[in-house]
Design brief:
The chain is an alpha+beta fold. It has 2 domains: 14-92, no CATH class; 94-158, no CATH class. It is built from 4 helices and 5 strands, in the order H-E-H-H-E-E-E-E-H. The protein has helices at 14-17, 28-45, 52-71, 144-158; strands at residues 20-23, 81-84, 97-111, 114-128, 134-140. The strands form 2 sheets. Strands 3-4-5 form a 3-stranded antiparallel β-sheet, with no helix packed on it. A two-stranded antiparallel ribbon has the order 1-2. Bound molecules: zinc ion.
Length: 159
């Protein structure tokens, strides 16, 4: 059994619990969703797309897998599974996404008492290649270089 094994057959220590959630344990979905929301916010701050939909679907699938394993095993066999929070990385991996659209974000502003439409930033629409989930990231004007850097890095990776 390797270190990355997802099966544990003993209660996790507090240290370990900071890094994963035990599937099927009481509140495991709540713990997962809380950590998911935090992770999404971290990505959002950096304007990185993050597919929460896939993360949730995969987690629910894991719960079903663990439950099925539990139901088909001898009750004396401790069936357990864990979701490691580092697995969240793959839901925010730029290679997971395809940029499908960009458009200016406009806002009405009062300039010298005249109503003006100004461009305040850009919306980047991505498609998650795994399940086709669509997600949009808004980037204000001042942070557009950050997004461009992110997209260029991704292009370079492909070459
Ligand atoms: Zn997805």
């Amino acid at each position: 059994m390797t270190e990355d094994s997802i099966s544990i057959f003993r209660p996790a220590t507090a240290d370990e619990k900071a890094n994963f959630v035990e599937i099927g344990k009481k509140n495991s979905l709540d713990i997962f969703l809380g950590k998911l929301a935090n992770t999404q916010q971290e990505y959002q701050r950096e304007y990185k797309p993050f597919c929460t939909h896939c993360a949730r679907v995969d987690f629910e699938k894991k719960i079903r897998d663990v439950a099925a394993e539990y139901n088909s095993s001898n009750p004396d066999v401790g069936v357990s599974g864990v979701f490691k929070f580092e697995e969240f990385k793959k839901y925010g991996d730029m290679t997971r996404f395809e940029l499908v659209d960009t458009k200016d974000t406009r806002e009405e502003k009062l300039v010298d008492r005249i109503r003006n439409v100004v461009i305040i930033g850009k919306e980047y629409t991505f498609k998650c290649k795994v399940r086709g989930c669509g997600l949009t990231v808004f980037v204000p004007n001042e942070d557009l270089p950050k997004m461009e850097a992110l997209l260029n890095k991704d292009t370079k990776k492909k070459e």
